[in-house]
User: Fold this.
Amino acid sequence: MPARAGVGLKAAHYREILEMRPDVGFFEVHAENYMGAGGPPHRYLAQIRSSYALSVHGVGLSIGAARPLDAVHLRRLAGLVRRYQPALVSEHLAWSTHGRAFFNDLLPVPYHAETLAWVCGHIHQVQEALGRQLLLENPATYLAFSESTWSEPDFIAEVARRTGCGLLLDVNNVIVACTNQEWQPLRYIDAFPLHAVRQLHLAGHATDADASGRPLLIDTHDRPVSQAVWDLYARVIGRIGRRPTLIEWDQHLPSWETLHREAQQAEDILNAFDAAQGAQHAAAR
Amino acid sequence: MHSTPLKEHSMPQLGEIQRAFARALLDPQEAPVGDDPAGRPDRLRFAVYRNNVAVSLIEALEAGYPAVRRLVGEVFFRACAGRYAAQEPPRSPVMLLYGDRFADFLARFAPLADYPYLADVARIERAWLEAYHAAEAEPLAPTALAHVAAHRVGDLCFTLHPSVRIVRSTYPAVTLWRVNMSKDAPPAIHLDSGAQDALVARPGAEVQVRAVPPGAACFLDVLFHGGTLAEAAAEATSASASFDLTAHIAALLESGLVTAARLRRRRTQLPKRQSICR
Assistant:
């Protein structure tokens, strides 16, 4: 996987991508969107995969649920990974299933010993089924649990330590969660196990307010990346160096050019890191 | 940062928290779960999750049923889709095929009682979606049957392409679907302008929807259920005297909707099935 900027692959852009062959580092797909038996999604993805690096991002495994993983769904994911051989596979620190229902959203978990045990058990099982490392993504959250006994970055660090999973640092989720929970983003990043970060996500968010008028950011993926997210991203890259970075834009899709420009902006920050490294080396000589 | 184990023991189990969370997601009367940073419950914060769940399901239905949405209008569609989603939440994390009972829901939805054709348009859209995601299969070459002796043609059983779907309607459902998929203003359609059965299939890259002549839906139904060409033809002609068997077999093969053919031995004929044609 090139440590470059990539873009979330959307059906609306399939043809344009195949005709123009834009210069992007990689494409990312939501695993569940390619779990149909056949059809155009697979036709296009197979063609695009033959020219680009790929990451697969699951949204339905429900890793944070207090119940066994859906074995059928895990087999589907393993089949998809076998078929398309992505460079990276990621999932969320969240849950989405209860009883027979699937909620189609990423729901929050309290950070305590029992959640830790469920999450680690599930990640072990996924890594075994896939025969590879899974990346776990930090969540965008809107509420807190009084039951939590760990901070979010410490909890994630412990999951990574126990399971050997890698991490997907979603910088927009950091800004959203820190605003909503009244945490300091820089302290969050200081506590986050940056050594395990294999990929980053960037996206846009909306601004709202809670019942007592506190700012409430919503992880909407429907607009350009905010300045606060770009700034924090640049600091993280300054600390850990180049990493594959995805522009996520899932709602109110813009033109391909707009998406590509966002990716180029991320790439400018990656290149600025290289330039700064080069200048440091030159100064050292 | 770690707490003592004692504190953990007094805490509700993760499963209990998720049970309460799930209940409150589905029922707005239930107390929200979770707190604001000051440790107080906050309805608006929990409402973000409620809204995310409801809106994502409505949007999944909007994506799957664009012609129905156009026919009833955006506001009505979203209200109606929200009602369906509350009754029929997804059972699978694979959302591609969410909404399999939406047409039946529309057929029973009292406010739509005066629009009985909507359910058939929804069935065409559902067939389209299933065909879009159906498995791939190599079509049988039309020449592959050249060696079958003329007197055995009636004993042929066809395997149809996995994407083939048949939707029967007593309304001009295919026309209604087609004009509401176009960007242009739809022309007036007379609901009594004739029944239309739809054949929906995706033998190649694109989903095809076409109105088929009377008898054809019967013919395909029999083949689909493993009947022979002779059995299918008998059903089709009893449903419609004008059914043109030869033209229909040729069209099926040429459009790539047959993926395999085999001869059924005459002495192992299946017991006579109940007629499935109207």
